Amino acid sequence: MRPFPTPPRPALAGHLALASVLLLLLLAVRWPLAIAAVPLPSVLTGRLSPDLRAAGALFAATLLAGAGCLLISGQPLGVWITCLFLAVFALVLPGLLGLYLRSTSDLAQAGWERARTLNREAELRAERARLRESSRIARDLHDAVGHELSLLSLGAGSLEMAADLPEERRRQAGQLRETAGRAAEQLMAAVGVLRADTESAPLAAAGDSISELVRNSREAGLDVSLEWDDAPRELPVMADRALYRVVQESLTNAAKHAPGAAPRVLLWSTPEGVRVRVTNPVPGQGRGPRQVPGAGSGLLGLRERIRLAGGDLKAGRSGRDWVVTALVPVAEPTLPPSPGGEPSRTASRVRAAGGKPASEGDDRFGGHGASALHDVLWEGREVHIHQQVHRRTLWAIGTILMIPILMGLVGYTLLLLSSYQQAADATLTPEEFEQLRLGQDRGSVEAVLPVGELYRGTLAESSQPPDPEGLVCRYYRSSRELTTDYDRYRLCFDSVRLVSAEVLTWGRGRPW
């Protein structure tokens, strides 16, 4: 979100905004209402200024110049407080708001950059998992198919050496042995291509079965149950290894993320093939996407393995359980296209469960069709980033609101104290006023007068009567109470004596 979009030339706009602030402040000296137009360019200065230090220095210089003018002209404390409020609400707070908008924009840009980085990491992670699974498949092919080709070559060699066979049959057996040898060599070459990941992958022996895997897990302390529901025990190599990997990865995740739980493994036959379902209770409440069992790169490898076997894999929350379900055809698979529809080894898009793009109707928050990859790599980090931005935004808004409120309370308190002190210093009681006599010596009159007098600056010129020509007049109030009506006294002197003593009646709320 950008409350103030950055113009095409932000540097020039920042300079213009700063110049507008200075121009309006100069105009406010002659026309005070011009101060009302200062907040907008102040916000734009904080938002768009290319050099914040220069803008801050100019703002500080402006405030110091204003303070110097007030000091030279000898203005009372009330005028200082009024000018301070104007400076804070017209200059300082709008500038801080502009800085906040700048920070928000920078944070948004950093967030999008972070999202692009996470997207690249997710793509690389998905591709790495697929390559690791290709390495696993290559080893399985080497162990199973290579062994069968070796037996075929050995049998053909025996037939080639049999003396009771005709020469033509022995020659054909030799050709069969050579063909089997070449097939074994080509298999080794293909395995070398598939083994793109040089790291060792944790694999069980090719002959291990699901029953042996479950038995070993029980011996290791995992309370796992296995149910065979008319599922065939003998399966093609690809289907058998795919089902084995589903159970192996699910039990590994259960032991890692939900120790003490009781996983349940169920296999059954369907017209489409063999299905396996591993159900594991998720302990505790409020676990995030990155904490659920099986949420990791292992699921990526399983998806690649099941895809190459021609099947389908789904994983996600179902109530209080984490469920992994896979369908593997028993017939030899026809390999579907790789994710993204391209033969490239670099994933062009992270894909969700069932082979659909993550942006096309995936259930992000659970269920068997949920994209575990999207949940793991994105949702937890996205929630964390949103929470950080939300907290920072609340703090910034609270700070922006509380600063003027606190300053208003402090300023109001100072204004009351200043008004009370001024009233006390400029109070001439009615009794003291009645004792004054026209023609009285000026020195004797000044001896009984208060130390201060009422404010007579530019803000009061329009509401006070003009002084008599050639005389020096002083103004006082009849009471120091701020909430009651009072009279204003005007005493005028010539060079040596009191010439006039007048009572000017004013209503409540006058600035005297």
From TrEMBL:
Query: GO CC terms on record?
Result: membrane
**What's an example of a GO molecular-function annotation for this chain?**
ATP binding
**The EC number(s) this enzyme carries:** 2.7.13.3
Check the UniProt entry and state the signal peptide residues, or none. none
Record flagged with keyword Ion transport: no
Q: Which domain of life is it from?
A: Bacteria
Q: Which InterPro entries match?
A: HATPase_C_sf, Sensor_HK_TwoCompSys, Sig_transdc_His_kin_sub3_dim/P
Q: Where is this region: Disordered?
A: 331-366
Q: Where are the transmembrane segments?
A: 52-72, 79-101, 394-417
Protein keywords? ATP-binding, Kinase, Membrane, Nucleotide-binding, Phosphoprotein, Transferase, Transmembrane, Transmembrane helix, Two-component regulatory system
Q: Which Pfam families match?
A: HisKA_3 (PF07730)
The UniProt catalytic activity note for this protein reads: ATP + protein L-histidine = ADP + protein N-phospho-L-histidine
- Signal transduction histidine kinase subgroup 3 dimerisation and phosphoacceptor domain segment(s): 135-197
Identify this protein by name.
Answer: histidine kinase
Organism, scientific name: Nocardiopsis metallicus
